[in-house]
Amino acid sequence: MTWPRLSVTLTGLQQPGLCQSCSGAGDERWQEHDEHDRPEPIIVGLCRGCSGRLVERHPRLYRMLQKYEPWPGAMEICVDCRHREGTRCPLSKAQGGAGVKLTVPAFTKAIVCGSGPGRGMRNLYVAPVSACEQREPRA
Fold first, then answer.
1. Given a cut of 70, is residue 1 above it in pLDDT?
2. Which pLDDT score, from 0 to 100, does residue 2 have?
3. What angle do CA 44, 70, 93 make, to 5 degrees?
């Protein structure tokens, strides 16, 4: 059985900073997983209210990205880039392209203890990406 995907069923605009459900300000980004709980290069933007209503009850696994976690196509710096397609950047390696070169401000390393999938060494991002070498503003 294939479960519905929020990236397909939500009708709002797919743009960094917007909620794909209500089209309001979206302050949360969620990485979608497949039916076997494997992460996919798909981001769904939601506001806090819609994420509380949709993600908890949704049968598919979603991982919330950190506020400043780099994800080409789904960052504020990408909003006016001509390469962006919704919340995707076709130039990034994770999404099938040759790759992008981002300027990522200093981050902190942390060890997360426990037995869940989030355990181990993690990067904690404290500021947004400040530049992308491949970024080209729309005309």
1. no
2. 66
3. 85
Cβ neighbourhood burial of 25 (10 Å; 0-12, 13-18, 19+): exposed
Distance, first Cα to last Cα, the chain: 44
The two structure tokens encoding residue 119? 């355990």
Distance CA 78, CA 44 (A): 15
Burial zone of 4 (CB within 10 Å; 0-12 exposed, 13-18 middle, 19+ buried): exposed
- pLDDT above 60 (res 38): yes
Contact predicate 69/39, CB 8 Å: no
Of 26, 37, 25, 41, residue with least CA distance to 62: 37
127, 69 in Cβ contact below 8 A? no
What residue type is 48 in one-letter code? R
**Average pLDDT over the chain, rounded to whole?**
90
CA distances from 56 to 48, 72, 82 (A): 12, 25, 34
Whole-number pLDDT of residue 118: 65
